[in-house]
Amino acid sequence: MSSVHIILPDNSIKTFNHEPTILEVAQSIGPRLAKDTLGGQIEGENEISDLRRKLKDGSRLKIITTKDPESLEVIRHSSAHLMAQAVQEIWPDVKVTIGPVIDNGFYYDFDSPRTFSPEDLEKIERKMVELLARNEDVIREDWPIDRAIETFEKMGERFKAEIIRDLAAKGETTVGIYKQGSWFDLCRGPHVQRIGQIKAVKVLSLAGAYWRGDENNAQLQRIYATAFNDKKDLEEYLHNLEEAKKRDHRKLGKDLGLFYFHPFSPGGPFFAPKGAAIYNQLQVFVREKYKKYGYEEVITPQVFDVELFHRSGHYENYRENMYFSRIEEKDFSLKPMNCPGHCLLYQAERKSYRDLPWRVADFGRLHRYERSGVMHGLNRVRTFCQDDAHIFCRMDQLQDEIASFVTMLNEIYHTLGMYNYVIYLSTRPPKRMGSDEVWDRSENALKDALTSLQLPFTINAGDGAFYGPKLDIMFVDALKRPWQLGTLQVDFNLPRAFELSYVGEDNKDHQPVMLHRAILGSLERFIGVYLEHTAGHLPLWLAPQQVSLLTVTDRQLDYGRQLENRFKDAGLRAALDLRSEKLGYKIREAQLQKIPYMVILGDKELESQTVSIRLKNGKTVDSLPIQEFIEKIALESKERRLESVFHAATNSNQEANNSSI
RNA sequence: GCCCAUGUGGCUCAGGGGUAGAGCACACCCUUGGUAAGGGUGAGGUCGUGAGUUCGAGUCUCACCAUGGGCUCCA
């Protein structure tokens, strides 16, 4: 047999007289490295390889040890096995299914006759720790597929047997089995050498799940857990999780007095004056952009004859999410979206090609019945309004309209300081209207626009709306859960359903293309995601209260009232705190309310007719002429700046006490 | 809709079969205090709702409602 060469990252070459495993390569370098080896990264492959894998001649290999972040995948993969082993040692009648690695951890789905309790989770974790101490070797065996099926069937592991049968149907003849002690599981790897290489595990939570993600299948019990290379990392992760919960928008909404929920309207947020201030400022902002980008705003009805939704196709495809009522023997529905109404409005006047593109915006209130288990603060509600607009245009205008939308979206997100959004292109779903030819055209139009604008995107096959493909602009919340904000949907179907037309240059009727688009998405969800993005520290222009005037003693009351009016006259949202509390008390309260500017009014300021300000970062600027201060922050608000104009100009280095924020 | 958990004054939470507690917030009084909590007094709860077990139920059981974490769904 000729020699096999393995190339390491420093371009050094290791030579073997056989195809070595990754572990053997590590051993040839040194025993310490071999001991810490958890897997390998082979150049040109996305996934981490199991350390037992044999390498072909000429492979470029990076050995993964505990020092590499990629090793977490291996650790967690093995931890999933460890958890399954622990569960089955405690409850032998529990059946295993699958246990993949996910962001920040892993889970395992079990089929169990008993329902797990939170105490069980502790029990499982204790068992896992016990098994860690046993430190068994993890051994891989390759079994003929028939033997594997037979073995798992005999054990009553019907889910595993089903997986293996599917592998057999795909033409596999052997499957990998990983053993630790007497316990074993079907797996592709990668796994650790010895169980003791897992240094820190934590069983986190319990959830229901369905076999293969289908709610018609068996309900399984999913246990979430995580694992790290050392205890410090685990503690840091758990700490970050706690910190993230502090910026949960539901908590911020309550603490800052922005919005509330009541059982009498599940999924129906109540915006208090402060929350409504944010809501309205966002609308003002978007309306400005509408003016700039050639949109016209319309107002359309809330309740429609159900006939409208039969025509649009929504009744057939979406009725389980609609609210109905019957009045004078006629069926009506609350609108779940604005588009059918806009189609009616389009038809109200005969359109010429000169009228296109026709861009109509609508802040209409929408109602969608969401299943009871899916509501989530402001992020998933049953009544909301979108920065919704529809663009009716000619086919040859489509590219420009898509490009213009993306430009507008960038502008708006940048003003808000949101740069890390992800674009998904969702293509035709199984349940859809329209011909494949129409779908081809619309999907390609979106792809081409993104490609020509050099915007990266991910394809979500089969996730489009029933009437057309779409772009979804996604953001994550404090716990990194993704939420859709903006959207752009190409629709060739509604214009046909409503027989929309325009007169072309050729004096003949043509059908327009319709674009559905939103940038913030629903204002409710946007506020939820944005509160978490900013941890409640809104930029001045969005802050419900921008200025808090704090008197030191009652001697400054008149001065305070006079100033409050001057701020209000300048269009600023200011309020005077004239209670006979100590200054420190008032500052604390304004600080907790995350009010951008505190204006301190004492005898000194009264005498010199100035103001002293305190920023919410704890820095102060003393003895500022009133007019100068008002003008500066009025401009900051008007220009929608993200940072305070006084950021660099503070003359005190006093640091804020952040411990209670 | 499904699985698990939770629900005690406005908020955050304690109490776990013998008849309701704290802190903050709120009201009033004293205090006029210069950059994150001055002091006192007081009001406020049929313990999510409804049934049941019990001599007696925030406390145990069941159902329902809402919320939280997931699953499924999200035109």
What is the fold's blueprint, element by element?
Blueprint lengths: L3 E4 L5 E4 L5 H8 L1 H6 E6 L18 E5 L5 H20 L4 E2 L4 E2 L2 E7 L6 H17 L3 E7 H10 L3 H12 L4 E7 L2 E4 L13 E11 L8 E10 L2 H16 L2 H7 L3 E2 L9 E2 L1 H20 L3 E2 L5 E3 H7 L1 H5 L5 E4 L2 E5 L4 H9 L3 E2 L5 E5 L2 E3 L15 E11 L4 H18 L6 E5 L9 H17 L5 E3 L9 E7 L5 E10 L1 H5 L4 E2 L5 E2 L2 E10 H12 L12 E5 L5 H13 L4 E4 L5 H10 L4 E5 L1 H6 L1 E6 L4 E6 H13 L23
Parallel strand pairs: 15-20, 19-27, 23-24, 30-31, 30-32
Antiparallel strand pairs: 1-2, 3-4, 5-7, 6-7, 7-12, 8-9, 9-10, 11-12, 13-14, 16-18, 17-18, 20-22, 21-22, 22-29, 23-25, 25-26, 26-29, 27-28, 32-33, 33-34
The chain binds one RNA strand of 75 nucleotides through strand 11, strand 12, helix 8, helix 11 and helix 18.
Question: Any overview of this molecule?
Answer:
By secondary structure, the chain is of the alpha+beta class. It is built from 20 helices and 34 strands. The strands form 9 sheets. Strands 15, 20, 21, 22, 23, 24, 25, 26 and 29 form a 9-stranded mixed beta sheet that branches. Strands 5, 6, 7, 11 and 12 form a 5-stranded antiparallel beta sheet that branches. It has a 5-stranded mixed beta sheet with strand order 31-30-32-33-34, with helices on both faces. A hairpin with a 2-residue loop joins strand 17 and strand 18 (330-334). Helix 3 (71-90) packs across helix 4, helix 5 packs antiparallel against helix 6 and helix 8 (249-255) packs across helix 16. The radius of gyration is 31 Å and the shape is globular. The chain starts with a strand and ends in a 23-residue tail after the last helix. Mean pLDDT is 91; it is low at 651-661.
